[in-house]
Design brief:
Blueprint: H1 2-6, H2 8-43, H3 46-53, H4 57-62, H5 66-79, H6 91-97, H7 102-133, H8 135-161, E1 170-171, E2 176-177, H9 184-197, H10 200-209, H11 214-231
Antiparallel strand pairs: 1-2
Helix pairs in contact: 2-3, 2-5, 2-7, 5-7, 7-8, 7-10, 7-11, 8-9, 9-11
């Protein structure tokens, strides 16, 4: 009786309901990922998503509308959880940020993004198509791209603080890239380049269109990003 009066059973039931709701949302977003990837944004229906998740259409609507399901599915597939926090705030990324060796840092970070691009390549095409048809999805996409670019700017700032970013200037006598301090404009330019190199489109073109294996794509991306950072862009 004391436990009931203190609210312990009630708190337990509340926690259990929250966990069940979280699991249901995960199933719905996982189903949305499969449906959007296979049928595109226009062809996907809430009934398809509900069937894949094993829930009612009404349950899917709770986590909608459709554009919210698209974004949630993308975030879940790309980073492992749905939400609008920065990529740098994810636990696995935070751990990589703490790596002191620049080579290990770039290998881990670029490898992580390459794997995320591989997971989301089909859904990314649906995302772009939906943005062209639905102004609200376009706004969501713009916000996502803005966050992504901010992540790359932070990444470049971290690399610059480590002295890992070249200036792009060559010492004619030594025949080497000058290791001076890159300007803010140079760092912004480098962030633009890295955002392009590590975009889902690079995976689509090289793996899906050109037939590269994922391993070849990942190794190329790590090497290209590392060389670009060392050269300053």
């Amino acid at each position: 009786m004391a436990d009931s009066e203190n609210g312990a059973p009630r708190q337990y039931r509340s926690t259990l309901r929250e966990e069940q709701a979280r699991q249901t949302r995960q199933r719905i977003l996982a189903s949305a990922f499969e449906v959007f990837s296979a049928k595109g944004y226009t062809g996907a229906s809430l009934a398809d998503i509900a069937a894949g998740a094993g829930v009612s259409v009404e349950s899917v609507k709770v986590h909608g509308p459709k554009r919210a399901l698209l974004l949630g599915a993308f975030e879940l597939a790309f980073a492992g959880s749905a939400g609008d926090e920065s990529l740098s705030e994810r636990p696995e990324v935070a751990a990589i940020m703490e790596l002191e060796d620049t080579g290990a840092f770039l290998t881990a970070m670029v490898g992580l993004i390459a794997e995320a691009n591989a997971r989301t390549s089909g859904l990314w095409a649906a995302f772009l198509a939906a943005a062209a048809e639905d102004a609200h999805v376009g706004d969501v996409l713009a916000s996502l791209l803005e966050r992504r670019h901010a992540d790359y700017r932070r990444m470049v700032g971290l690399l610059a603080a480590r002295g890992a970013v070249g200036t792009g200037q060559v010492d004619a006598d030594a025949g080497q890239v000058d290791a001076g301090t890159p300007s803010d404009d140079a760092l912004q330019n480098l962030a633009d380049i890295l955002s392009f190199l590590m975009s889902p489109e690079s995976h689509q073109q090289l793996v899906q269109q050109s037939g590269w294996t994922f391993e070849r794509y990942r190794d190329w991306l790590i090497g290209t990003v590392s060389a670009t950072v060392a050269a300053g862009g």
